[in-house]
Amino acid sequence: MSDLPGRISLREVGPRDGLQNEEPVPTDAKVELIDALSRTGVGRIEAVSFVHPRAIPQMADADEVWSRVRRAGDVRYSALVPNLRGAERALDAGFTELEVVVSASDTHNRKNVNRSTEESLDDIAKIIDLAHGRGATCQVIVSTAWGCPYGGDVPVERVVAVASRAVRDGADSASFGDTTGMATPPRVTRLVGEFRMANPETSLNLHFHNTRGTGLANVLAALQLGVADFDASVGGLGGCPYAPGATGNIASEELVHMVEDMGVATGVDLDALIDVAARAETMVGHTLPSQVLRAGPRSRTISP
Length: 304
Ligand SMILES: CC(C)(COP(=O)([O-])OP(=O)([O-])OC[C@H]1O[C@@H](n2cnc3c(N)ncnc32)[C@H](O)[C@@H]1OP(=O)([O-])[O-])[C@@H](O)C(=O)NCCC(=O)NCCSC(=O)C[C@@](C)(O)CC(=O)[O-]
What we know:
This protein is α/β, with parallel strands linked by helices and 304 residues long. Helices cover 41% and strands 15% of the residues. The chain has 12 helices and 8 strands. The protein is globular and about 60 Å long. The structure holds 3-hydroxy-3-methylglutaryl-coenzyme A (HMG). 3-hydroxy-3-methylglutaryl-coenzyme A binds at residues 17, 20, 49-52, 55-56, 80, 82-83, 85-86, 89, 101, 112-114, 141, 143, 177, 179, 207, 209, 240, 242.
């Protein structure tokens, strides 16, 4: 296919977004998962979040996990933070890439981080300054970008305004989260287009959940617009604890499998990634949704 990016950057979010929505797994298993992912060719891993342990007990051991990870020189690791305190913790732990989350939907933001969207945006300006002052980057992730589980559609203008405010305040890049899988290709096209009109210089990541089966279709729509930065989680682990019915992210191995066959490089060893997905399934103790984990890649045939 023509006019697609020659290469995408995949940020693996299974250890954070994935595991936050599973029964807590032991610290050893988290470290093993991140280390195994570090050997697959994935260039970026969202390793942990620094949130209140009462809100997300699954991330209570973030400091210990991060201190034990064998950091690979060719992998960039990041941490998600919800507020200033989380940012301080992440920087103290040595992270140099932060992601700060805010929901375009006020209701979701209050459920998620106990603040209005405007209050979070005020905090984000301080978090960006703090990160930059300590030599780190800070991406703003706008959740509920294509809809809120509590309030339905969120106007595109509102989503762009929230992201643009953080960009004006110095965010190094932006990401749109489809928290509960409400995006469809035309909605992706519209939001990406409007965001770029307002912020032509800002690099953009997209974070899709497959809750309604449109995850890879949304990726294709975004690729056709030249977007080359996607989140995905190994095996399709994941969800959002503050979004009833949310299911996992698009599966990393499904993303790699599809785009590589379209001539878009990822740098990822697909067989190695599938092996990690199988291991992740054992860790969480239930079947993960990834179809490529079940069926194998199209290049893997069976004897007649
Ligand atoms: C944001 C808070 C902390 C507000 O929680 P709060 O209760 O409003 O916090 P507070 O500021 O009032 O402080 C109360 C106490 O908590 C402490 N505290 C304050 N902050 C922290 C922190 N970061 N880590 C540890 N402790 C913290 C603080 O120090 C204080 O301690 P005390 O003085 O009473 O002893 C809480 O609501 C929270 O942790 N929420 C996190 C929710 C979350 O992690 N959601 C999932 C991630 S978002 C997501 O998955 C979506 C995404 C990114 O994937 C994209 C998409 O799909 O859309």
